[in-house]
Amino acid sequence: MANGLFWAAVAFIAYTYLLYPLLIFAAGRLRDRSVRSGERPAGDPDDALPTVTMIIVAFNEEVRIEAKLSNCHELDYPAGLLEICVVSDGSTDHTAEILRERDDIVFIEDPENHGKPHQLNRAMESAGSEILVFSDARQMYDPAAVRKLVDNFRDERVGCVSGELVFRAPDDPTGGSIGLYWAYEKALREAESRVDSTLGVTGAIYAIRRELAAPIPDDTILDDIEIPLGAFRRGYRVIFEPGAVAYDTTSADIGAEFRRKTRTLAGNYQLFERNPWLFVPWKDRIFVQAVSHKFFRLLVPWAMLAVLLASSRIEGTAFAVVFWAQVAAYGLGIAALRSKGLRGNRLINLISVFLTLNAAAVTGLYRYLTGTADVRWKKR
């Protein structure tokens, strides 16, 4: 029994992190559903562009909000067609005071901290533009980002478009490992969108047709999955546009990444509980992507535990080596959380980040089951 459990768990992990990516990359090449009319014809006038509302929900962003608004005004998009809507979600610093003085934005002030989903609903309700772009105060956009997002809507099949978040990794192995993991995730999303659609988008930079932007429950953990999912259920594609770029910096603090990932994975549990149709192949046209990319990731920690326990029970030198290799790798990965010297080793650091992300899946389950995955803001 232990032998069968060992090989089944190894196969599951290998499928989730290696075989599925290879399959979706191959499928993306064989079934490349390129976006039609993704580029505007030469000489196409600016007044042919759709109107856009950029929505930014801010909490205690007095340090960054003016730089963000300057970045918005530097975008290569006609000013008369681009509206900027900023919501202060119960900010307790000077964010609201700064925004009240601006006459170049639509400002929605809420003295209460209700959380991002609540404020997104308010902003979506007030916006009258054809396209809504969702952004955060922290990330800065490339000047062409909004145009690149909007160009994809020339294809009537496209309902939502995700941009690419480019991390400027700090000079630290942890930031580099997190950046490597994020590059792997982006490659998966790009391949999935070539096949049909990707399940989630990058919350800091994505756009949706206004008529597809439906309200979401106030306790939604992952608005950047629930909002695009509404477009997908209505038959539209959710695609990834690598040319629409926003910039951020990875954190060298593995604890901060653990907290962020815990919240994200708690949101995945909520996603599948609220949308059981994702598990039904004849209702979900990206069933394989949803299960393989999102759901199986939640089960990998338990498969890792099964491999460890099963290898300890199987007789033979080879399995003894496998068991002790796992113990050594996990021990070094855990020790690296407290040892800067160990974190300097790229392989050990990568193991440490991998263990942290999988521990977040277990903690995320606990947070979700106990109702402690708060949608309100936690400053980074």
Describe this structure in words.
It is a single chain. The chain is an alpha/beta fold and 380 residues long. It has a single domain (1-33, 45-380), classed as Spore Coat Polysaccharide Biosynthesis Protein SpsA, Chain A, CATH 3.90.550.10. The chain has helices spanning 2-30, 65-73, 95-100, 116-126, 145-151, 173-195, 223-233, 254-274, 287-313, 317-335, 340-343, 346-370, and strands at residues 52-58, 82-89, 106-110, 131-135, 140-141, 158-167, 205-209, 237-248. It has an 8-stranded mixed sheet with strand order 3-2-1-4-7-6-8-5, with helices on both faces. Strand 1 (52-58), helix 2 and strand 2 form a beta-alpha-beta unit. The longest helix has 29 residues, at 2-30. The protein is globular. The model has no long low-confidence stretch (mean pLDDT 89).
Which SSEs are present, and which pair or pack?
Blueprint: H1 2-30, E1 52-58, H2 65-73, E2 82-89, H3 95-100, E3 106-110, H4 116-126, E4 131-135, E5 140-141, H5 145-151, E6 158-167, H6 173-195, E7 205-209, H7 223-233, E8 237-248, H8 254-274, H9 287-313, H10 317-335, H11 340-343, H12 346-370
Summarize the structure.
51% of the residues lie in helices and 14% in strands. It has 12 helices and 8 strands.
pLDDT averaged over residues? 89
Q: Pairing-aware structural class of the strands and helices?
A: alpha/beta
* Rounded radius of gyration (Å): 22 Å
The CATH superfamily turns out to be Spore Coat Polysaccharide Biosynthesis Protein SpsA, Chain A
* C-alpha geometry: globular
Q: How much beta, percentage-wise?
A: 5-15%
Tally of individual domains: 1
State the low-pLDDT regions, or none.
none
End-to-end separation in angstroms reads 46 Å
Question: Widest sheet: strand order?
Answer: 3-2-1-4-7-6-8-5
CATH topology: Spore Coat Polysaccharide Biosynthesis Protein SpsA, Chain A
Approximately how much helix is present in the residues? 40-55%
SSE run:
HEHEHEHEEHEHEHEHHHHH
CATH architecture: Alpha-Beta Complex
The level-1 CATH class: Alpha Beta
Largest sheet entry:
8 strands, mixed
Number of helices: 12
Number of strand segments: 8
